[in-house]
Amino acid sequence: MLATIRSIVRRMVADCPRSVEEYAAHLEGRLDAIARVQRFLLRAPDAHVDLEELVRSEFLAQSIRDEQLQIFGPRVLLGPKAAESLGLALHELTTNSIKFGALGCADDRVHVRWRLQRQRQSRVVFDWRERV
C-alpha cells in the first residue's frame, strides 16, 4: 500500500498542481479512495471486495444521487490489489465526471456495467458510459 501511495504522490508532483491547496485536495481525495478499499478489506474475513459495493461507495463518497446512476453487473469479488487499483480508477473517473462530464449536470447520467468475459470467467470487462 505504501508503494501505491508513494506512486500517487510522485505522479501528482509530476502533474504539477497550480497550488499547495490544490495538491492537498487531490491527494486527500486519492487517499480517501484507498481508505474506502481498506475498510472493505478489513471487514471482509476472506479479504475480498464486492465490485458493486466498491462502485457504489465511490458515488456515495462524492454525494452522487442514485437518479444519476445505472449500475449493473454480476457479483464479482476482487482481491486486495485489484480492489485498490480499481478503487483509485473509480475515484478518478468520478471526479473527472463531476468536473467535466455527466455528473456535473443534474439531468445527465452515468452507466456503469461489467460482465465476466466469456472465454475467461476470471476476467471482468468494465464499462463506464456517460449520457449527457
Please name the defining characteristics of this protein.
132 residues; alpha+beta; 3-stranded mixed beta sheet; two-stranded antiparallel sheet; 4 helices; 5 strands
Amount of helix: 40-55%
Mean pLDDT: 85
Count every helix, treating DSSP H or I runs of 4 or more residues as helices: 4
- Biggest sheet character: 3 strands, mixed
Which secondary-structure class do the elements indicate? alpha+beta
Return the domain count.
1
Low-pLDDT segments? none
- Number of distinct beta strands: 5
Order of helices and strands: HHEHEEHEE
The separation of the N and C termini measures 36 Å
Tell me, briefly, the overall form.
globular
As laid out across the biggest beta sheet, the strand order is: 2-4-5
Oligomerization: single chain
Tell me the Rg in angstroms.
15 Å
**Strand residue content:** 15-25%
